[in-house]
UniProtKB/TrEMBL annotation:
Subcellular location: Membrane
Any single Pfam family the record assigns to this protein: Sugar_tr
InterPro entries listed in its UniProt record: MFS_dom, MFS_sugar_transport-like, MFS_trans_sf
GO MF annotation list: transmembrane transporter activity
Source organism per UniProt: Aotus nancymaae (Ma's night monkey)
UniProt lineage: Eukaryota, Metazoa, Chordata, Craniata, Vertebrata
All copies of domain Major facilitator superfamily (MFS) profile, residue ranges: 1-393
Gene behind this protein: SVOPL
Membrane-crossing segments per the record: 88-105, 112-131, 191-215, 365-388
UniProt name for this protein: SVOP like
Length: 401
């Protein structure tokens, strides 16, 4: 349901961002996400919990506008280096939440974990004072004075001199039109990007959920724990509830931290790949390797071997996301860049919604069947990436289609 909220509002926020500005939508999404995230910790029932988490998904869907703003400010030669470094901050957040969960859930319960996790989002709202609206967006809407003011501020900060002359660009009235994504020029690119986003998300969340499932069920060498235990749920007033899962032990949290660190392991190679091999070939290679490592998970191995495979899988799926985020932000013109990212993010959540049924339901019945399905999807994405019609390496951002 979190992903359903994300899927619906990702398109809406993309449309609005192309029409009314990236900064406004980014701020609204942060306020929305932080507010409903905090409310979740006070959910009186499971139905309320699911509803509030859906609202959180709606808010989080607008966060990608931050990447759009950054993309539209970065010079062409630095985009391939600076955008992948965002992964470091994503990793930091992932490690922080696992660390907090290992301390908070066993002691004072999940509600306090949600409350503590809401704090950074609330604090970051104050940072919006220092984030400018995209100068490219301002120019496209005819707000040249605002764009000039932003550029002059940047020049002053960098102790540089503004180029001589006037900033002249045509005013683009038609912005954020869904039909533009399916225009003859971008139709094939759009359809292939949607397939890749769906597949990457399916694999990414599949790895994360499979990691928890393999640890939880002790599925090393394909064996499964048959024990059914009674688990105390964080809040004492909620008593005890029989379920088919084990509470994570400290060693399980350590394993999740190790596999999560894998998300940054291939970052240097990923940066080199997208800058020297190009976005398409780099993505095709990492998707192919992802397919291979999904199959390797079925090999009978030790706990250390399983952690190693999960480590590499997390590194590869993170590299996939890095590359497709950059490619999507670069391939579309300013008039529909946010919408292109929004619709891709929406399709992406379909893969995310399907992943739990494969990682946790199908995997319970057939580990090999689940892994083969993940691998097959990755192969399809690798082929789609290799055959993308436009290479964006070294290509200037397009202002109009």
């Amino acid at each position: 349901m979190v992903f359903f909220g994300y899927m619906v509002f990702s398109i809406l926020f993309g449309l609005l961002a192309d029409r009314y500005g990236r900064w406004k939508i980014l701020l609204i999404s942060f306020l929305w996400g932080a507010y409903f995230s905090l409310l979740t910790s006070f959910a009186p029932s499971y139905i309320w919990f699911v509803f509030l988490r859906t609202m959180v998904g709606c808010g989080v869907s607008g966060h990608s506008q931050g990447l759009i703003i950054k993309t539209e400010f970065l010079p062409t030669k630095y985009r391939g280096y600076m955008l992948p470094l965002s992964q470091v901050f994503w990793l930091t957040g992932s490690l922080l939440i696992i660390g907090l969960a290992s301390v908070i859930i066993p002691t004072i319960g999940w509600r306090w974990l949600v409350r503590v996790a809401s704090i950074p989002g609330i604090i970051l709202i104050m940072a919006f004072k220092f984030i400018p609206e995209s100068a490219r967006f301002n120019v496209s809407t005819g707000n040249t004075p605002a764009a000039l003011a932003t550029l002059e501020h940047i020049a002053k900060m960098n102790r540089a001199v503004m180029p001589e002359g006037k900033l002249v660009e045509p005013i683009l009235e038609k912005r954020g039109k869904f039909a533009d994504l399916l225009d003859a020029k971008y139709l094939r690119t759009t359809l292939q990007i949607w397939v890749i986003w769906l597949g990457i998300s399916f694999a990414y969340y599949g790895v994360i959920l499979a990691s928890a499932e393999l640890l939880e069920r002790d599925m090393v060498c394909g064996s499964k724990s048959d024990s059914e235990v009674v688990v105390t749920q964080g809040d004492s007033e909620e008593g005890q509830s029989p379920c088919h899962c084990h509470m994570f032990a400290p060693s399980d949290y350590r394993t999740m931290i190790i596999s999560t660190v894998g998300e940054i392991a291939l970052n240097p190679l990923n940066i080199l790949g997208i800058n020297f091999l190009g976005r398409r070939l780099s993505l095709s290679i990492t998707m192919g390797c992802t397919a291979l490592f999904f199959l390797l998970l079925n090999i009978c191995t030790s706990s250390a071997g399983l952690i190693g495979f999960l480590f590499m899988l997390r590194a590869l799926v993170a590299a996939n996301f890095n590359t497709i985020y950059i490619y999507t932000a670069e391939v579309y013109p300013t008039t529909m860049r946010a919408l292109g990212m929004g619709t891709s993010g929406s399709l992406c959540r379909i893969g995310a919604m399907v992943a739990p049924f494969i990682s946790q339901v199908l995997m319970s019945a057939s580990v090999l069947g689940a892994l083969c399905l993940f691998s097959s999807v990755c192969v399809i994405c690798a082929i789609s990436a290799f055959t993308l019609p436009i290479e964006t390496k070294g290509r200037a951002l397009q202002q109009i289609k």
